DNA sequence: CTATTGACTAAATTAGTTTTTTGGTCAAAT
DNA sequence: ATTTGACCAAAAAACTAATTTAGTCAATAG
């Protein structure tokens, strides 16, 4: 049974990116961790960035599985939006690789990392967009610009979960759900 | 009529900060621009940062005057929130000093500048908070956590006006007003 | 006397140079 | 047909020297 070199490489790179970040991970290190010659990496991946892309791509798939598993058909659309988003942001704050990448972007501003995080954000927005389109088709919510709506939903969520904590004590899931309800359901108008 | 040295210094520093940013402005330069010996600056201000603070403090006052002038009593609360916020973000994108500081934060990450922009943001949130409290007292909108609500309102606005433009064509004032209405007034629920 | 100044200094920043590291290649080995 | 690691150019880091700058304070001016 020959070891699957490709998988070893991806596993090693994932581990190293999670531990040290993108920039501080060297291809020599990945090769050593994967018990593989450095050249072998380049038979599977064009370069470091493509290896990174593959890993992020898997990560996004994982996230979507997570979000989907949070959705329950018997609940309302609004409730499910909250549940899916909350699961996604929990994922972001609990997965070692995501934590490291967010940190690397903040501290060093590594370009490849910024691009990749932007990409992840866009994927999440696309995911939300699809859910919103389905809800509109089913007549569950009124028509709207789905691109802007999904964009704004995510931004609101990030504001509540991450930005808020810069100056205040973190909000509980229940508090966030309550706030979302005010904005999504009733609006501020009496 | 002795020239008011303090005013000359503040004027010179404002000009230089607007033109070159915080870091690239030297105290020698400010002194020369203000036709004043460098030591004189330090009889009025403890250090460079305190001089900066005074200028930002004036800026915030200007912004509040701007926002207030956008408010019209005969319009609805929601409409006025939109008008005031729009005026504030217009201010940010049109005032030379603000433009320069936002740019300096993005490009160089100057700490003193980041702190000052955070301070400006907090002042805006405080301003919104007062308006919301008044509206609640008048019974115009339902009760809510005013701290979170004002925070979220600003974040939504910045998302629509600034973040959106990273990947899309800018939204017009009318479009933004429409989106705000959906979220503040009606919610997404049918 | 008080208010103002600019030469002065310690500390920080920048510029220039050398050394080390790193992504990627490819001839040799398996 | 795969895999490898010595090798290379280019990028990054480390180091140093030279310059700049915030802030001080003894001398000066009014």
From TrEMBL, chains A, B:
Keyword Lipoprotein listed: no
The UniProt record lists the keyword Repressor: yes
Residue spans binding DNA: 26-45
Domain of life: Bacteria
A Pfam short name: TetR_N
An example Gene Ontology molecular-function term: DNA binding
Domain HTH tetR-type: 3-63
Keywords: DNA-binding, Repressor
Protein name: TetR/AcrR family transcriptional regulator
């Amino acid at each position: 049974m020959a070891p699957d070199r490709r998988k070893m490489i991806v596993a090693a790179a994932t581990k190293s990116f999670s531990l040290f970040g993108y920039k501080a991970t060297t291809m020599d290190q990945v090769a050593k961790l994967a018990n593989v010659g450095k050249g072998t990496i380049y038979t599977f991946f064009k370069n470091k960035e493509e290896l990174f892309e593959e890993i992020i791509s898997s990560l996004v798939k994982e996230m979507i599985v997570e979000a989907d598993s949070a959705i329950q058909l018997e609940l309302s659309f609004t409730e499910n939006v909250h549940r899916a988003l909350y699961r996604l942001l929990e994922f972001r704050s609990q997965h070692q690789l995501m934590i490291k990448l967010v940190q690397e972007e903040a501290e060093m501003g590594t370009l490849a990392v910024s691009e990749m995080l932007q990409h992840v954000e866009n994927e999440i927005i696309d995911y939300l967009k699809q859910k919103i389109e389905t809800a509109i088709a089913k007549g569950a919510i009124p028509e709207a610009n789905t691109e802007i709506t999904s964009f704004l939903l995510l931004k609101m969520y990030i504001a509540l979960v991450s930005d808020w904590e810069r100056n205040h004590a973190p909000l509980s899931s229940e508090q966030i759900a309550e706030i979302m309800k005010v904005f999504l359901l009733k609006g501020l108008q009496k």
